[in-house]
Design a protein that fits this description.
It contains three helices and no strands. By secondary structure, the chain is mostly helical. Helix 2 packs across helix 3.
């Protein structure tokens, strides 16, 4: 018996949506954390600190560049 292609595709789409939702939630929380830390001190330096820390902790994960961290903060503020 052949697998039902529609069910496989549907499962793939649902998994993709869940991953994207989780990633968006992570970015939102990270943006909030950056804004809160900037209120205390660190200012613009927080972008480099967060970027370096995340890259060191998760070397195989893309998206933690200095520029992306600044963009995440901007998205949160928007």
């Amino acid at each position: 018996a052949k697998p039902n292609k529609t069910k496989v595709q549907s499962s793939q789409i649902k998994a993709s949506i869940q991953v994207n939702s989780t990633l968006l939630e992570f970015c939102w929380n990270l943006g909030n954390e950056i804004v809160e830390k900037q209120k205390i001190a660190l200012g613009e330096g927080i972008f480099r600190v967060v970027s370096v820390d995340l890259i060191a902790e998760f070397p195989d994960v893309k998206g933690f560049s200095y520029t992306n961290i600044k963009n995440i903060r901007q998205w949160f503020l928007f």
